[in-house]
């Protein structure tokens, strides 16, 4: 049995995980899985081998409350019951917010975890669960080396002008500035581009990470120069249930006319809006694409329209555009969304190849398209595993 790394990506009601075995200098994914509906009525655990074959499944009781700590206990117990899987020697976590302090992954200790706790108000949908995952592993094995990889870290290279808000100094001193998220996804996808499109891959690239959370990033020579997400992961593109960019005057109106307080506004911005709020049907792009309801159609159109508006902003920050890249669940699988974005962005010199797009090819533009558009599946867990291994080797 080899040694291994566990990667945890804890969301509000789910934990995605992946287990990697170490063979010499290489890391191989041996299993991945999902615990979903944590805190809900029907928690469900499933683990699969790399080829998709089911390795294990549990339907834990929802009572007493099946929380993140219990979910992790079940995951670690399941690993123990499978001695053929690698024996864990480190755990890597996705942590959404690293504030101003962390511009790279970090080997955790209790003082750092306390600091990450303090960042919870900046990412209420993600950070509490990321930190809960770290604490749950400490509770089970206090000596397990743990590494945090931050969504924000990749964007710390942005120039000051891209990070500023035009607000008084005292608030900026508190860390009220633009951060950017989905950093592991951008790091991974950007690292693949030189292999796929040669020298151009080091140029001025816009990556659209379109998942349940969605953002875009402008990358020059492998470094982030701008992002659509800002202080929090609610800015920029509309998402499954998040508004994206919205006139702050709307919030003042909600406070003044509807008497909304902090909790109601947070719910409105993060949970009731986006694709779900606009369509009134679903936050799931698959459901919207298969619906003939006009509300579903205008929602998909709005999503694509906002992507193309932000593409202009990202290209302006870069001073040019060498390639457009789609990734994330929607970016990788929703051909009609990619087609509509490319159609609206045709004037940039993006010429869609409809057959390549439908077939899920890597390059989805024609050979003579001035700017190529690509689809590159992301691998946030793989990046976390690599950083975790590197830092855990220093313990
Ligand atoms: N085949 C598909 N066609 C269209 N949309 C898809 C498809 N598969 C997944 N999606 C969409 O991807 C989104 C989830 O993206 P994902 O990156 O998995 O989310 P998360 O941010 O939770 O990791 C959902 O809106 C889902 O509908
Ligand atoms: C930062 C963010 O939006 O993450 P996710 O896509 O996992 O919701
Ligand atoms: Mg995501």
UniProtKB/TrEMBL annotation:
Pfam families: Acetate_kinase (PF00871)
Pathway stated in the Swiss-Prot or TrEMBL entry: Metabolic intermediate biosynthesis; acetyl-CoA biosynthesis; acetyl-CoA from acetate: step 1/2
Cofactors, names only: Mg(2+); Mn(2+)
Top-level taxon in the UniProt lineage: Bacteria
Gene Ontology MF term list: acetate kinase activity; ATP binding; magnesium ion binding
Subunit structure: Homodimer.
Xref: Gene3D superfamilies: 3.30.420.40
Protein known as: Acetate kinase
Family (UniProt): Belongs to the acetokinase family.
Binding site for Mg(2+): 9, 380
